[in-house]
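Bench notes, afternoon.
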Amino acid sequence: DPDHVLMTGNPVRRSVIEGDRARGRKALGVPEDATLLLVFGGSLGAQHLNERVASLKNELLSRKNLYVLHSDGFEETERALALTPEEAKHYRVQPYIDNMGDMLAAADLVLSRSGASSVAEIAALAVPSVLVPYPHATADHQTTNARYLVDAGAGVLCADADIDGSAFADELLHLVDDAAARDAMRQAARGLAQDRAAALLADAVEGLR
């Protein structure tokens, strides 16, 4: 009965909701007028995604005003990238992000898997995204998660089996280069009001008194 169901969205941690773009960029040393690509895969099944991004290193770094923050969790990625000291000024690799709110707020584009928490956090900060669902998730639930953003026009979906092809690289690099396309995706993400999910849930519970 729809009269007895309220969709609030997935609540997001306050530390993420309160992410600050200026603070995040200062922590990374990224200028305000630069483009920041944030790459993360979560703890499960991200190795293929990491390998594909590493293969695009030269194309990414050919864009002089682009910075990359890549949270990989795998030492193999760092070895595959083989960053020179000069390249490392624009491409940072770290095993884990502990201030995700600030990093999402600082980002202009996210490339990631699509676990429920990740999608909720990306939506809450209204960051344009390219989502690659983990292909072995139970009942392919990460694809369902990704659809939340993709169907709203706030994200792009690419199957894991397709990321080695040129279409994936073309789409990713197009969004890196096209600020207008990213702005449209950001506006679409804001329309989801995911940052209000926790408040809506709390209000609903309070209303049951």
